[in-house]
Design brief:
- There is one protein chain.
- Helix 1 crosses helix 2 and helix 2 packs antiparallel against helix 3.
- The chain has about 70 residues and is mostly helical.
- About 65% of the residues lie in helices and about 0% in strands.
Length: about 70
């Protein structure tokens, strides 16, 4: 997804466009499951961790971090 498309998608999602919100979620979910699924070695908490991660990602979709700031 190029940066212009991404900005348009974020703007639409912020305006309540459910399809625009589904686009990044659909794209991110397999990657998040892949990463999280490796950490607790298939533990039952994987689904909970993925759900919390996705909720935070979507909740912060309109709050980009300052790229010039240092630290986490």
């Amino acid at each position: 997804m190029d940066s212009q498309h991404w900005r348009g998608t974020v703007t639409a999602a912020q305006s309540g466009d459910r399809q625009a919100l589904d686009e990044p979620v659909t794209g991110w979910l397999p990657l998040v499951y892949n990463i999280v699924g490796r950490a607790p070695n298939g533990h039952a908490d994987v689904d909970d961790i993925v759900q919390e991660t996705m909720l935070r990602a979507v909740g912060n979709l309109g709050s980009p971090r300052d790229r010039t700031a240092s630290g986490p």
